């Protein structure tokens, strides 16, 4: 019998410990298959060999009825005894070569891949599919490897070592995949032609479901539905000042009309300032750290700000739940890795958050963004340590490459603040001048830029990149006007909120931008494109 051709689009991995009360594994598997599961992997870590074989035969009877392949986890002997269609191995299990010799040429063999090193070691192996993960953190395997997140998944998919494997080898993604993040994962991994993600491998969501049939139908719909809002759907031009003004007006108009709720989980220092900034910018803030209400808030939320400025490790479950539910409802997530390079705890919290779900915007100062990029940066607390000195010549190119590389790895938008603010969607990089040195001596001006970005993006979901650019221009403009005639940082902070309020009224901004005072501030945008080889082209300057 030739090796069967397999539809890997909805792959169920069992875990009998997670079944709902009074439900047998056999019943749960059958219901899931009726909902659209296309492959079943039987994973039993606690059963004796005899019990495993007995259960394997029982489940095989069901899968056969529906013509769905049964894959046995880890145990070649059980796969042979049950005459299952295949075997799935990890790196502590039987190696692929031995498994192939024992099982023969007709059986399916799948392998777990958790990092780049394992992928290299697989060169030339006779296997049929790869289970890549964990994508996100999960409780199913408490001892699991660190989550890959979107950046780790993209690193793997871009790796040329796939050349040592059958071309277009199917991939299933595993670990924390649910109906809330599946489309994000598929979208984030798209564009890597060397292989194809065929679908999710799901454990807890399906196995613990009261209604697995209905849940699997939802998974199936998501697999074929168009992707959730990505940031690149909306084409826009910033070729001259007039185009920039038009874009600012259209973004602000939506903000003004909707007054979206912006859920903040933010630090104790800036809560009040950020809430006032949010109101002044046209949003409706709610500062809440109650895990019990994150899902309810996500239902009505416009965008979500996650700022780890004073976070303790106890807050990790809250972060997971908040990211998960905001991903589920498609609310943009803005992450501020405050002080990311200052301590071991902050470095690990950054990794935890980036491995918890899809993040639309990462916003930080230079020290924070370089930490996210994987550099070891000794930060002085929450303040940036700027070593890429100025914003001219080679150092401006270095900054442009830094933000665009981080954005490419996470397939999102990255903002790096400083005297000049840098923003990239991985393809273009824009350096935005403006702002005032007083911002450097008022705490929370970076944090509340995250708030304004979230406010602008909340109701402009099909043009996220443009919304972020507009947020920074408006923010910097308000900061400069607020500095006119003030005594120092204290009165600047008050004047700043006044100016933000004045500008965010759509007609106010529109009128103000066309006035000579605006031109006199000398704000500008410098724009680079990045080609497919990753090179930056010549930049173009637009004076506002
Ligand atoms: N010297 C400066 N000139 C112009 N703008 C500045 C200057 N310093 C900071 N800014 C502006 O201040 C805002 C915050 O940037 P900064 O890099 O200080 O953030 P941060 O370190 O994260 O702040 P915080 O942690 O206090 O919230 C940005 O909009 C940035 O453009
Ligand atoms: C000062 C400070 N410390 C933790 S968070 C924060 C606010 C600015 O990031």
TrEMBL record:
<comment type="function">
    <text>Condenses 4-methyl-5-(beta-hydroxyethyl)thiazole monophosphate (THZ-P) and 2-methyl-4-amino-5-hydroxymethyl pyrimidine pyrophosphate (HMP-PP) to form thiamine monophosphate (TMP).</text>
</comment>
<dbReference type="InterPro" id="IPR022998">
    <property type="entry name" value="ThiamineP_synth_TenI"/>
</dbReference>
<comment type="similarity">
    <text>In the N-terminal section; belongs to the thiamine-phosphate synthase family.</text>
</comment>
<dbReference type="InterPro" id="IPR036206">
    <property type="entry name" value="ThiamineP_synth_sf"/>
</dbReference>
<keyword id="KW-0547">Nucleotide-binding</keyword>
<dbReference type="GO" id="GO:0004417">
    <property type="term" value="F:hydroxyethylthiazole kinase activity"/>
</dbReference>
<dbReference type="GO" id="GO:0005737">
    <property type="term" value="C:cytoplasm"/>
</dbReference>
<comment type="pathway">
    <text>Cofactor biosynthesis; thiamine diphosphate biosynthesis; 4-methyl-5-(2-phosphoethyl)-thiazole from 5-(2-hydroxyethyl)-4-methylthiazole: step 1/1.</text>
</comment>
<protein>
    <submittedName>
        <fullName>TMP-TENI-domain-containing protein</fullName>
    </submittedName>
</protein>
<dbReference type="GO" id="GO:0009228">
    <property type="term" value="P:thiamine biosynthetic process"/>
</dbReference>
<keyword id="KW-0460">Magnesium</keyword>
<feature type="domain" description="Thiamine phosphate synthase/TenI">
    <location>
        <begin position="10"/>
        <end position="206"/>
    </location>
</feature>
<keyword id="KW-0808">Transferase</keyword>
<keyword id="KW-0784">Thiamine biosynthesis</keyword>
<dbReference type="GO" id="GO:0000287">
    <property type="term" value="F:magnesium ion binding"/>
</dbReference>
<dbReference type="InterPro" id="IPR029056">
    <property type="entry name" value="Ribokinase-like"/>
</dbReference>
<keyword id="KW-0418">Kinase</keyword>
<comment type="similarity">
    <text>In the C-terminal section; belongs to the Thz kinase family.</text>
</comment>
<dbReference type="Pfam" id="PF02110">
    <property type="entry name" value="HK"/>
</dbReference>
<keyword id="KW-0067">ATP-binding</keyword>
<keyword id="KW-0479">Metal-binding</keyword>
<dbReference type="Pfam" id="PF02581">
    <property type="entry name" value="TMP-TENI"/>
</dbReference>
<dbReference type="GO" id="GO:0004789">
    <property type="term" value="F:thiamine-phosphate diphosphorylase activity"/>
</dbReference>
<dbReference type="InterPro" id="IPR013785">
    <property type="entry name" value="Aldolase_TIM"/>
</dbReference>
<dbReference type="GO" id="GO:0005524">
    <property type="term" value="F:ATP binding"/>
</dbReference>
<dbReference type="InterPro" id="IPR034291">
    <property type="entry name" value="TMP_synthase"/>
</dbReference>
<dbReference type="GO" id="GO:0009229">
    <property type="term" value="P:thiamine diphosphate biosynthetic process"/>
</dbReference>
<dbReference type="InterPro" id="IPR000417">
    <property type="entry name" value="Hyethyz_kinase"/>
</dbReference>
<comment type="pathway">
    <text>Cofactor biosynthesis; thiamine diphosphate biosynthesis; thiamine phosphate from 4-amino-2-methyl-5-diphosphomethylpyrimidine and 4-methyl-5-(2-phosphoethyl)-thiazole: step 1/1.</text>
</comment>
């Amino acid at each position: 019998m030739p090796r069967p051709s397999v539809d890997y689009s909805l792959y169920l991995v069992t875990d009998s410990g997670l079944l709902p009360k009074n439900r047998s594994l056999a019943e749960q598997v059958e219901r899931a298959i009726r909902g659209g599961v296309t492959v079943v992997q039987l994973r039993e870590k606690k059963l004796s060999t005899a019990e495993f074989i007995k259960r394997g035969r029982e489940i095989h009877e069901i899968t056969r009825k529906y013509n769905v392949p049964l894959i046995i986890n880890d145990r070649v002997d059980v796969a042979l005894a049950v005459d299952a269609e295949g075997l799935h191995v990890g790196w502590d299990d039987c190696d692929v070569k031995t498994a192939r010799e024992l099982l023969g040429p007709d059986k399916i063999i799948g392998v777990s891949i958790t990092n780049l090193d394992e992928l290299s070691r697989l060169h030339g192996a006779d296997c049929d599919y790869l289970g890549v993960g964990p994508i996100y953190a999960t409780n199913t395997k408490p001892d699991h490897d660190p989550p890959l997140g979107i950046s780790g998944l993209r690193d793997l998919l871009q790796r040329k070592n796939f050349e040592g494997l059958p071309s277009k080898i199917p991939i299933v993604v595993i670990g924390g995949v649910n109906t809330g993040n599946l489309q994000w994962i598929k979208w984030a991994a798209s564009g890597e032609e060397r292989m194809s993600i065929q679908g999710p491998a799901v454990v807890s969501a399906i196995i613990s479901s009261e209604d697995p049939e209905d849940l699997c139908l939802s998974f199936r719909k998501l697999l074929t539905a168009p992707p959730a809002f990505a940031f690149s759907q909306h084409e826009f031009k910033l070729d001259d000042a007039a185009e920039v003004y038009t874009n600012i007006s259209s973004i602000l108009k939506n903000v003004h009309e909707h007054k979206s709720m912006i859920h903040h989980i933010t630090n104790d220092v800036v809560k009040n300032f950020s809430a006032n900034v949010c109101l002044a910018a046209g949003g409706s803030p709610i500062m809440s750290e109650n895990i019990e209400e994150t899902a309810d808030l996500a239902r009505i939320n416009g965008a979500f700000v996650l700022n780890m400025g004073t976070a303790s490790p106890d807050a990790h479950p809250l972060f997971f739940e908040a990211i998960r539910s905001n991903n589920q409802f498609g609310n943009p997530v803005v992450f501020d890795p405050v002080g990311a390079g200052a301590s071991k705890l902050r470095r690990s919290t950054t990794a935890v958050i980036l491995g918890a779900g899809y993040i639309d915007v990462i916003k930080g100062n230079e020290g924070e963004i370089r930490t996210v990029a994987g550099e070891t940066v000794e930060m002085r607390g929450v303040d940036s340590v700027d070593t890429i000195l100025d914003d001219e010549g080679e150092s401006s190119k270095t900054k442009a490459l830094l933000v665009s590389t981080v954005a490419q790895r996470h397939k999102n938008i990255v903002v790096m603040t400083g005297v000049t603010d840098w923003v990239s969607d991985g393809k273009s990089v824009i350096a935005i001048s403006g702002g005032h040195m007083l911002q450097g001596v008022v705490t929370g001006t970076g944090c509340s830029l995250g708030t304004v970005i979230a406010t602008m993006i909340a109701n402009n979901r099909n043009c996220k990149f443009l919304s972020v650019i507009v947020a920074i221009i408006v923010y910097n403009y308000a900061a400069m006007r607020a500095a006119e005639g003030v005594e120092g940082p204290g009165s600047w902070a008050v004047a700043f909120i006044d100016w933000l309020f004045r500008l965010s009224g759509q007609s106010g901004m529109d009128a103000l931008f066309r006035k000579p005072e605006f031109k006199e501030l000398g704000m500008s945008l410098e724009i680079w494109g990045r080609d497919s080889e990753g090179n930056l082209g010549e930049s173009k300057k637009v004076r506002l």
